[in-house]
Amino acid sequence: MEKLLLLFCNWSTLGVCAALKLPQISAVLAARSARGISLPSLLLELAGFLVFLRYQCYYEYPLLTYLEYPILIAQDVLLLLCAFHFNGNVKGAAPYMAVSVASWFVLPLQKWIIDLAMNLSTFISVASKFAQLQYLWKTRDSGTVSALTWSLAAYTCATRIITTIMTTGDLTILTRFVIMLALNVWVTTTVLRYRKTAVKAE
Questions:
Q1: Cα 165 from chain centroid?
Q2: Helix axis angle, 39-58 relative to 94-106, nearest 10°?
Q3: Which residues in 75-96 are b (16+ Cβ under 10 Å) and which e?
Q4: What is the pLDDT of residues 88-106, one digit of tens each?
Q5: 171/74 Cα distance (integer angstroms)
Q6: Which pairs from 70-74 meet CB under 8 Å and 24+ separation?
């Protein structure tokens, strides 16, 4: 029974993550605007994903427990490029991409570096969620922000809590997923709240 639950959680997470950012990317492309999306939030999220993936690779954790992260990173990069494009500054993405590539090689140089980065990545990810929340609170407009994307992110955090408990038991990772679950639910409800406000205003 435990093996079936683990398989379901792993594969459903992969399936959800394969399409996680697609509603958001689709909304941005359809509107030809990145209105409502916080660039700092997106950049911080990408940094958190990169550190998390490098940490999992470094400790050689089971592949199925983090296989969605390359997919999420690719989708974040695409969304980031769309956001920079519609804000009229595609070249502005170049320095961030360069830092991301460089960090991939620097992080595993020493064990203390990757461990410190992993602990900091939780704070980075929290900061990314709060950056999006702050943007929503400030504008009181969810714009092209996809509630579906954020709710799917909450689901993947919930499944990863289960798989972490059943496989590695890594407390750092477990803490991260619990915090991310709560914040993803918070962002989802905020997006839905301001969407209803915008509809009523119309």
A1: 21
A2: 20
A3: bbbebbebbbbbeeeeeebeeb
A4: 887 888 888 898 889 899 9
A5: 27
A6: 71/14, 71/17, 71/18, 71/20, 72/17, 72/20, 72/21, 73/46, 73/49
pLDDT digits (tens, 9 = 90+) for 105-155: 998 889 999 999 988 888 888 988 998 899 889 888 777 788 888 999 999
Tokens representing 83? Answer: 């956001």
Give dist(CA 14, CA 172) in Å, integer: 21
pTM: 0.81
Is the pLDDT at 196 greater than 70? The verdict is no
Q: Tell which residue, 180, 126, 187, has the closest CA to residue 13.
A: 180
Tokens 């890594």 correspond to 170
Beta carbons of 49 and 73 less than 8 angstroms apart: yes
